[in-house]
Amino acid sequence: MGAAAVGKSSIISQFLYEQFIGEYKETIEELHRSEYKLTDTQLELDILDTSGVHSFPAMRTLAISTSNAFILVYSVDDPSSFDEVIALREQILAERNDENVPIVIVANKTDMESDERVIKREIAETLVSVEWGHGYVEASAKENVNIEGIFKEILRQSKVKYSLSPVLERRRISIPVLTQKKKDLSPKRHSID
User: Fold this and answer.
1) Are 95 and 64 in contact (CB under 8 A)?
2) Helix/strand/coil for 184
3) Strand-by-strand arrangement of the 70-75 sheet
4) Which of 70, 115, 116, 172 is the most buried (most CB within 10 A)?
């Protein structure tokens, strides 16, 4: 979840398909599903790519109430996107009534020049990790930097034991191609936003 144009879809595309989406296309909602064998555990991962606009509050509320963990994304060059992460976190905690819900905050677009960056790592990381007690990851979907780290951190926050390195080869085989995505909005499955 996050504001529009922060790179949520690009992060998912890099993680699942090793492809960067260069042009911006507004997402309404897309579900990506994949299965992984993690050491002794079979994990079914549902990633719900949500809209970055407030036009769909019912969909957002449903996503919050049915998800097991959350990845909140902001762009390091857009302070309003960080404000959106703060608001989303507050909404998640209020609707879930659970201070321990797994949340990872992602600072995306770290490939930008340092003078373009307006949200400093030290400030964001201290707020997220120390004050809130959530995971914090700096990433670049464009350069494919630390994308896997985002998903390792959400697993850590969710207390799932993992060993992703042997899975990477199998992941590419088990994941359908981008054009063959299934859309299933069933709230019965565990999902990560």
Assistant:
1) yes
2) coil
3) 70-75, 103-108, 135-138
4) 70
Q: Return all residues near 48 (Cβ < 8 A) that are at least 6 apart.
A: 29, 30, 31, 32, 63, 67, 191, 192, 193
CATH 3.30.499.10 fits 8-18+25-180, yes or no: no
> Distance between CA 175 and CA 169 in Å, rounded?
11
**pTM, entire model:** 0.78
Q: At what angle do helices 8-17 and 147-157 cross, to 10 degrees?
A: 100
- pLDDT, tens only, 99-155: 899 999 999 999 999 899 999 999 999 999 999 999 999 999 999 999 999 999 998
Most confident of 38-42, 50-54, 67-71, 177-181: 67-71
Residue 165, both tokens: 């390195």
